[in-house]
Amino acid sequence: MNREVRNIEYTVHELAKLAGVTSRTLRYYDEIGLLKPARLSDAGYRLYGPREVDLLQQILFYRELGVDLETIKQIVHSPEFDELEALRQHRQQLLEKRRHLDALIASVEKTIIAKEGGITMSDKEKFAAFKERLIEENERKYGEEIRQKYGDEQVDRSNNRLRNMTKEQFDEAERLGKEVLEVLKEAMQDGDPAGEKAQRAADLHRQWLCFWWDHYSKEAHAGLAHMYVEDERFKAHYDQVHPGAAEFLKEAILIYTGMKK
C-alpha cells in the first residue's frame, strides 16, 4: 500500500490544486528549470511524482520566506542541498516569523481595546506597538532584498535591535537619519564626494547604521551603498534630496570605507 502511495502521479492541474498554486505557476517553474515534471504522458501531459511533490514543498517554503526564484533554483538543485537540514531551517525561520506576527497581533489587539476605552496603554506599550508595525512595514517593502543580501540571521538581529530600542535611542536614530539627508544636500552643492561635507555625511550614515546593526563592517557599509543605487526604492529615498544624491552618497561611502576601486 505504501508503494502505491509513493508511486502516485499528478497532472499539472491536480498538483496545482493540491499545493494551492496555479497551473500557470507550475508551467512557469518548468520553463525556467525550477521544477521539471517526472515525465510526460503518452499524450504529452506533464506528470509529477513524489520527488517533485517534495521539491515543490521546498520551493513554496522558500517563497514564503521571500526568497527569489533564481536563488531557490540554485539552492534546491545544488549537489550539497540537504532536504532535512533545509526543513529544519524553514521551521526555525517560520517560528521566528510566527513570534513576530504574534507580537504584532497582540499589540494591535491591545491598541483596539485602548481605543475602545477598555484599557490605557502606557507610552512604552504604544512605542512597542509602533516598532512592531515599523518592522512589518520594512519587511513588506524591503524584506526580500535585504534578506537575500545579508541573510535571515542578520535581518532578524536587526529587527530585534529595533524591538529593544528605547524611545530615546529611536529618536536619536531618526535625528541622525534626517541629518544625513541635510548634510548630503549641502555636500552635493560642493560636488566632491571626497570633500569634508560628503565625508561627514558618510560618517553620519555609519553612526545611523550602528543603531540598526549589531556589528559594523566597512564591507557591509559599502555593499549597502551599492544597493541604494541598484534598488529604485532606496534610490528614490535619497534622490528626493537632489537628483543623483544616491549615487553621490554611494561614492562618498566608498571613499569613506576605503572600498573605492
UniProtKB/TrEMBL annotation:
The keyword Transcription regulation applies. It comes from the Bacteria. This is MerR family transcriptional regulator. Keywords: Activator, DNA-binding, Transcription, Transcription regulation. The keyword Transport does not apply. InterPro entries: DNA-bd_dom_put_sf, MerR-type_HTH_dom, MerR_fam, TipA-like_antibiotic-bd, TipAS_dom. Residues 9-78 form the HTH merR-type domain. Pfam families: MerR_1, TipAS. Transmembrane segments: none annotated.
